[in-house]
Amino acid sequence: MSNCDVIIVGTGPGGATVARELARRGKKVVMVEWGPGGPVRGSIGQYVSELLVPGKSLLITHGLLSMVRGITAGGSSMFYYGTCFPVPLDMLKSYGVDIRDEVEEARRELPIAPLKDEMFTPMARRIQEGARQAGFKWDRLEKFMYQDRWKPGMPFGYYGDRNAVKWSARMYVDEAVSLGAVLVDRAKVRRVIVENGKATGVEYRSAGRSCTISAPVVVVAAGGIGTPVILRNSGIQEAGFDFFFDPLVTVAGTMGDVKTGNAEIPMSAGTLLEEEGYMMTDLPLSRLTHFLFTGQVLRLHRLLSFRSTARIMIKARDALGGRITDRGGVRKHLSQEDRDKLHHGCQNATKILRAAGAKDIYPTWTFAAHPGGTVKIGQLVDSTLKTRVDNLYVCDCSVIPEAWGLPPTLTIIGLGKYLARHLSGEKGRLPPPETATRQP
Ligand SMILES: Cc1cc2nc3c(=O)[nH]c(=O)nc-3n(C[C@H](O)[C@H](O)[C@H](O)COP(=O)(O)OP(=O)(O)OC[C@H]3O[C@@H](n4cnc5c(N)ncnc54)[C@H](O)[C@@H]3O)c2cc1C
Question: Angle CA(330)–CA(335)–CA(340) in degrees, nearest 5?
């Protein structure tokens, strides 16, 4: 570790992609990860300990909106729903960040495709029929899934996918390690060490001890919440303000003649209502999450009707606002406009479920997902993803400069490839510096 070229903090889609790309180019990489890097068991115990620990992976705002993030090697992608949405190429390009080639490369390498017929289940089909009957364009969505590894009845991997059908950033972490990168897990980074305006390493805590590692380049990729906390501790106090968190609500109903189960694949089809500012998809849940969502709105008589529940998710593009606290708490209220979008979505989801034949339809609590925009391109990082501190870069959901309301994994992977190319000196395609500071 004493000779490493680059330290990468965090191993979600952002950090893992940079690590894998740099390791493939022969760089000596050290990944420092707060969560554990052990095997994926796909158990409820692992799920709870890596995604649902209050104050660590489960964060609750003052308005009682809860938000989860995976604190584990692979980050939130260990528990995500594996849906691939288009990348906001034009928006990023207007800030001097052109990742078109990187996204195409990622598309060639990753298993991205709509579900094949056998994986598109009767419940998802019924919701699709209801949506089309109610007048919505409701198409299959692209998924990050190795569909050739899938077998009928295989659980989706809500609690982590031990069958490795769902792509996760852990696969890139493993690949980086196989190419010589080092993973230091269970190590929480507190700050980047800055000397004479240059990043020279990181300070982290592991097993109750404070440790440091040095390297000429540091990439912080601790996610939309973790990254601003580390940057503030490193002297960049403006990080962590005016962010988005893509609020969501689900609408559930009881279906008499179609059953669901742990093998149901979430977000297999849906629609994007761009002008209205929200999207809708089918959203079957794990048994545990069904229990939590249903209990939260006191539909106690529905707690045990997991198998007959049809569910639609509405996810909105929210206005930027709020702040991350110095300890990583989330402070943000939904605006009236955001609430109106979710309300409108609930009305449409109710129409769809009715058309699909569901009864006893009700909305659940509002949640938040995908926190980002806390270290925006054009404000706190330039078009090479560099902060004002020399040799200190950021590469995760934090850098996305505007809210666009869609799940961002492919975008983050594209940014990871882009940064790796820059750090490897393949700079030919980067824009001139004057386009690097556009304000939103
Ligand atoms: C339930 C769920 C479903 C989702 N479904 C989808 C989907 O279908 N499609 C999609 O595109 N997106 C989906 N997402 C969102 C997607 O998973 C995230 O947007 C993505 O993982 C963000 O990547 P990231 O690299 O920015 O951060 P993260 O994945 O959050 O990774 C950050 C990493 O940093 C580590 N870390 C944090 N703080 C520190 C620290 N101080 N020191 C060291 N390490 C630290 C964390 O442990 C983690 O490994 C979903 C998310 C959830 C929670």
Answer: 130
Give the position of tokens 């592991």. Answer: 206
Mutating to test ligand 1, I would choose from 87, 400, 409 the residue with most ligand atoms within 8 A of its C-beta, which is 409
Q: Is the CB of 371 under 6 A from ligand 1?
A: no
Domain boundaries, the chain: 6-37+72-110+167-240+372-437, 116-145+245-368
Domains 6-37+72-110+167-240+372-437 and 116-145+245-368 share a fold: no
Side chain identity, residue 290 = H
128 Cβ inside 6 Å of ligand 1 = no
pLDDT of res. 62: 85
241: β partners: 323
Task: Assess contact for 250 and 313: CB atoms under 8 A.
Answer: yes
pLDDT (tens digit per residue) in 234-286: 999 999 999 999 999 999 999 989 988 889 999 999 999 999 999 999 999 99
Q: What is the reported pLDDT for 1?
A: 65
Task: Sheet containing 209-214: give its strands across.
Answer: 188-195, 198-206, 209-214
Residue 310 Cβ < 6 Å to ligand 1: no
CB neighbour class for 126 (10 Å; exposed up to 12, middle 13-18, buried from 19): buried
11 Cβ inside 6 Å of ligand 1: yes
Cβ atoms < 10 Å from Cβ of 436: 19
pLDDT at 385 over 70: yes
Q: How far is the CA of 305 from the centre of ligand 1 (A)?
A: 30
Mean pLDDT of 209-214: 96
DSSP conformation letters of 113-175: EEPPGGGS-HHHHHHHHHHHHTT---EEPEEEB-GGG--TT----TT--TT--B--HHHHHHH
CATH of the domain spanning 6-37+72-110+167-240+372-437, picked from 3.40.50.300, 3.40.50.920, 3.50.50.60, 3.40.190.10? 3.50.50.60
Looking at residues 360-384, what average pLDDT do you find?
95
Higher-confidence residue: 344 or 430?
344
Token look-up 């990860």 returns 33
For 116-145+245-368, CATH gives 3.30.410
Please tell me if the CB atom of residue 370 comes closer than 6 angstroms to any atom of ligand 1: yes
Give the residue-averaged pLDDT of 125-142: 98
**Quick check: CB of 278 below 6 Å from ligand 1?**
no
Residue 440, pLDDT score? 33
